[in-house]
Amino acid sequence: MIEITDHIALGDHELAFTYMLASGPGGQNVNKVNTAAQLRFDARRSPSLPPDVLARLERLAGSRLTNEGVIVITAKRFRTQERNRADATQRLAALIVRAASPPAPRVVTGPTRGEKERRLRAKARRAEVKSLRGRPEAQD
């Protein structure tokens, strides 16, 4: 079991790992050892996630979410499978923690004094432009 929050824990059977060749620095080790870890987590079918957390998680996952509702995280920062596996698991946990906390409600505020003054100055400028479009007044 992977503890995410006090109320959310993922079972090991919910996470699927595959390993592949990593790119980037690492010398010959990169070319011959499958060290990069790819984590797949089927969020839509997970019994561990409440519906509200699932909805926020799908929004936060972005391009890491497939059409089937599977979150795919690839970790290849480290030289060993174990560290890349732990890195992918930590990144998924951090994503779920962010989704588990509901967003703060927006507090509706009125316009500031500066906004009001700018709006009134813009209205006055516009009124001046429009007043100049009329017929010229008769001169005595």
Explain briefly what this protein structure is.
Helices cover 39% and strands 16% of the residues. The chain is built from four helices and five strands; from the N terminus they run E-E-E-H-E-H-E-H-H.
Main beta-sheet strand count, sense and barrel state: 3 strands, antiparallel
What's the shape?
A: elongated
Cα separation of the termini: 94 Å
Q: Strand sequence of the main sheet, in spatial order?
A: 3-4-5
Roughly what percent helix?
25-40%
Helix tally?
4
- Overall pLDDT confidence: 89
Instruction: Indicate the structural class.
Output: alpha+beta
Number of strands: 5
Order of helices and strands: EEEHEHEHH
Q: Unreliable runs, pLDDT <50, ≥5 residues?
A: none
Our count of domains comes out at 1
If you compute it from the alpha carbons, what radius of gyration comes out, rounded to the nearest whole angstrom? Answer: 28 Å
CATH topology: Double Stranded RNA Binding Domain
Assigned CATH class:
Alpha Beta
CATH architecture: 2-Layer Sandwich
Q: DSSP strand (E) fraction?
A: 15-25%
